[in-house]
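Q: What residues go here?
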């Protein structure tokens, strides 16, 4: 059996699945139920300074994006950090940690960008016995308008400064949560590292408006006729999150910085992809809000079964394994040639591939009078669009042309290996070198 236990910057947990700081971790009742269901850890919903007035809206807090089958693809939330008193949260955190000593418990914190504010709250958090803190530099709505959250996360100098304060006044791991609402995610990651951060977590939610009520002409969710931008999360943000995680993992100056991966993780496969791109563990929110806490049991069972199948015995063996294969476009091998192939036994003659290719791509699929569809190799550029629009799994696949054969589209011989590409005249790097 695969061992799912993780040691993330010295924080041990029975599996790599933590609940992210969000409504599911707002109180002891929720976190206890989550731990009983099998979650390996939880990041408590973000704490505010003593006396900081946090008042949430009492109308709708979420907007949604659905797939064709009404499956939830994304949530836009306008909820603020915890509106419960700091003393109550700290008391509950201490009790939960005492009762679940084997689970990771992290305190998320967001206070004004002033040294005294951090100096005041950190000793009180430490008294709870929690395993570490997460600095919320990512929230894009509400609190950012008060100069906190993403307003700090978008300024690397502030990230480094606050991180240094936390390392000075707190003796356990400090995780910096990064905002995706920035051009280059590597810069805040480097700032966190320079400030002494033990790890980073990403991504936080993406600034968004998910929809507009066209009857009332107001963004949704609508509060008394008005709407506001919020934070977007859920399966739809996963591609963005994977890219940002990989950028930090493969950047020379941050490659050794531990990463807690966040963003649209719904299945064990999602988690495995984050791990492969450099994450040491993962945090989940929307999936728990959609399916309940017991969804973690499917995640742990699936990850364990896959690890057994592949021969991995620990989560650490997965972390970063795909990073060496993430490269810049200019280094992709243009000598690698594939063509689409249609399995006529699986084809249902729907014509989607033909319509997509004929109207919007390269006119590389023919349709006969009896609605038989075939690929025209001389026109196929291997764009993969036909595969993506086909409703039947594995009906259309991409087949690599054998080295030495001639590409009927270009008339060029297919090269045998990647090495030939390093000096190929179409390689921008090779041209620049000359």
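A:
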């Amino acid at each position: 059996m695969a061992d799912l236990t993780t040691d993330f910057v010295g924080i041990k947990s029975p599996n790599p699945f933590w609940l992210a700081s969000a409504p599911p971790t707002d109180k002891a009742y929720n976190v206890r139920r989550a731990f009983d269901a099998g979650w390996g850890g939880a990041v408590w919903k973000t704490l505010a300074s003593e006396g900081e007035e946090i008042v949430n809206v009492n109308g709708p807090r979420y907007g949604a994006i659905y797939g064709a089958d009404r499956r939830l693809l994304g949530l836009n939330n306008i909820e603020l950090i915890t509106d419960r008193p700091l003393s109550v949260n700290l008391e509950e955190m201490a009790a939960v940690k005492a009762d679940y000593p084997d689970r990771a418990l992290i305190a998320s914190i967001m206070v004004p960008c002033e040294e005294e504010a951090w100096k005041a709250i950190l000793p009180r958090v430490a008294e709870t016995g929690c395993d570490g803190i997460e600095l919320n530099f990512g929230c894009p709505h509400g609190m950012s308008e008060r100069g906190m959250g993403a307003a700090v996360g978008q300024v690397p100098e502030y990230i480094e400064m606050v991180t240094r304060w936390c390392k000075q006044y707190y003796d356990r791991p400090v995780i910096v949560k990064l905002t995706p609402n920035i051009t280059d995610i590597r810069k805040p990651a480097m700032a966190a590292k320079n400030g002494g951060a033990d790890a980073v977590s990403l991504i936080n939610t993406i600034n968004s408006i998910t929809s507009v009520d066209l009857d009332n002409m107001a963004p949704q969710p609508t509060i008394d006729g008005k709407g506001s931008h919020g934070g977007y999360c859920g399966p739809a943000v996963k591609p963005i999150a994977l890219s940002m995680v990989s950028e930090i993992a493969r950047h020379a100056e941050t490659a050794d910085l531990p990463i807690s991966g966040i963003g649209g993780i719904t299945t064990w496969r999602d988690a495995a992809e984050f791990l492969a791109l450099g994450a040491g563990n993962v945090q989940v929110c929307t999936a728990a809000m959609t399916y309940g806490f017991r969804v973690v049991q499917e995640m742990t069972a699936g990850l364990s079964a896959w690890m057994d199948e592949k021969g991995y015995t620990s989560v650490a063996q997965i972390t970063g394994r795909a990073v060496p294969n993430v490269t810049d476009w200019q280094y992709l091998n243009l000598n690698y040639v594939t063509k689409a192939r249609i399995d006529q036994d699986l084809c249902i003659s729907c014509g989607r591939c033909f319509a997509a290719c004929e109207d919007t791509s390269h006119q590389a699929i023919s349709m006969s009078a009896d609605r038989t569809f075939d690929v025209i190799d001389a026109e196929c550029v291997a764009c993969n669009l036909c595969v993506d629009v086909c409703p039947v799994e594995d009906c259309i696949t991409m087949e690599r042309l054998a080295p030495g054969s001639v590409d009927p589209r270009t008339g060029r011989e297919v090269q045998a290996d990647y090495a030939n590409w390093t000096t190929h005249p179409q390689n921008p790097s090779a041209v620049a070198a000359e």
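A: Context that may help when evaluating the design: The chain has a mean pLDDT of 91. The longest strand covers residues 41-47.
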